Structures are given as C-alpha cells and as structure tokens.
Amino acid sequence: MFEPASRRPFRPLTAARDPVLDSLEEFEFVVSGEARPTLPQMPLPQKTVEIMREVRLLRPAFVLYTGDSVWGYNAGRQEFINDLDRFRSAADETGVPLFNAPGNHEMQSDPEAISIVQQRGQDLYGSFDVGDYHFIALNTDEFCKEGRVTDEQLEWLRANLAEHRDARGMFVFMHRPIFSWFQGDFNPDDAEVLQALFREHAVRGVFASHDHFFHREDHDGVAYMTVGGGGAPLYAQPPSGGFAHYVLVGVSPGGIDYNVVEPGHVRVDHTAGNDGIEPLTIARIANTSDRDLTLRALPFRVPRLESSDRYELSVEYVDWERKQPEVTPRLRSVRDLNDGSVELSVEVELPTGVAFRVRAEARL
Q: How much is the average pLDDT of 41-60?
C-alpha cells in the first residue's frame, strides 16, 4: 500500500509504517505541525496531546507533519534526543504513520543537530506514494539555506515532479510557507520557482507551518495552507487564524476535501466496564465540532472470546430529543491484550452536534 518513491524515499518517524487503508481510491489523511513548547525543557503542549488523541480515534491513513516537533535550540545532545523521542512516542500512540518535514527547531542551522535527527530516523526530504497519489516532503531549513529550496534539492524536486506527472494527485509538505502575511522569510526567488513548478505539474495542495496560525491562499489551482496550530504558542487572534487546529484531507475520485478541525470537540467517555472483566462496556461519544466525522478506532476493552462473532455492538440515544441515531457501529479489529481481555476497535459515524452511547458486549 505504501510505496517509497524511487531515488529518494521519505520514511515515517513512527513504528507504524503502512497507511491504514480500506481503499487506495478513497482515504483521509491529517496535516498538522508546530508541537514545540513555549519554552525549552517543557513537555509537549496540551493541544498537541489532544490532536494526537483525536488522530488515534479518527484513524486516518497517515499524518503529514510540517515540522517543529521539538524546541531544539541550545539543548544539550541528550536533551535534544529525549525531546525527539518524546514526540515520536506521542506520534506512535496514534497508531498510524507520521511523516515529518523538518523545521528550523529540528535543524537549528547546526550540523550536529542535523546529524542527530538523521540518526533518529528523520529523512530531510524525499517522497512516497499511496496508490496513485504522490507526496513530497521538502526541507526549507537546510544548513545555511534557511527559507530556500535550491541546488541539489531543487534539481531532485524537478526530476521527481516530472517522474510523477501522471499521478492522480500530488501534495507537498514542508516547514516554511511560500505565502505568509506574518514572517515572510521564504526567499522570494525560490518561492517564484516553486510556485511555477507546482503550477506546471498540477500539484493539488502545499502544506506548511512556521507561522503559528491557519492561513490559506489558492493560486493557479493549488491550495497553499499554513497549518501552524498544532500546540505551539499562537501568533494571531482567532479571526486571523490563531486557533489550535489540524486539517483532515479526504481524497476520492470525486475530488479533494479540506476540513479544518479544532481539537477538543470530540468527546469519548467510557461510563461502564472497559476493564477487560465486565462483559459490557459503554462509551458516551459526542461531536461538538461543525462537521461530521468518522471515528475508525473507538476502543473497547472486554473479556476475550473464542470468536469475534460473539461481540455485539449497538447504540442508544443521549440527546435531548431522544432520537435514536441513525448510525451502525462496525467492528474493525480485535487485539489480544494477553491478559484474558481484548481491545475492540470500532468504527462509527459521528454527525455534528450529536451525542450518543455505543455499547460493546462480550456474549459469554
């Protein structure tokens, strides 16, 4: 399913290597960036943790990350390694591959820092394929070339775009945005070259961060998005895009959908069971966001049974109108926890403005 593109493959940081796919024709992926804390020697921001939790519930095919996953600057070697591993551990909790295009807080204009991130499995630029879709990671913070894509990397990009000109859709992710009303520190000549290449090769979307807010501009059929609300301190007020967010991208034969999602609007509370002993586990779920969502990995811990056919799923209303939600939960997988219990992974549609209970029962 996941194919590293020829000549320079780009690998995920996470233990999960293969995209979670039901179809190569239609799938979703998440775009996020900017998990670095407010100050050095601080834990991951709470919003970063919330986003990772929601990604685990949504279970997209994979995550494109646009850099600045750590603080980095002036950290000692071991502190820097610990921070990189802390972010990787949080990303591993999502259960899906996460591909990170490095930012200035990883690269730091420092050859030693660059060497460390590479030793920890961070590719600097490259590409990969999922079905007929092509994804390109660029490094906008090469040593002494900050805010640029030039020389060897640019020549590689030209060849890579030409090689994949027949892809159904191409997407680019990188750290510094070409279009910015805030910092605007991308080399203008390089930006012009990249924009022409993206236009010529019909790139569908270009994702960046660096600016800690959401911003979108469309030029020549290409959607340029700054997705910088992944937990780091915000640089703008909410009306100007200064709110925590990630982008849920859906690709299908019908086109591309971009949905900006604020974390914290998906609630999951297990109100009964979920201990691996009680046969009945109940989860109350609610969606207070402004869009319909699909949870593909709603977890239930129940006793282990010989056959998955003996796990029964159902829903019941919660909302004030006492309407039975028109959704049907589906069992996606059963994971043996090797302690007499299993974790059921359940898929369920979660319409906007709706709350209800999902029941999972082991028929002993």
A: 97
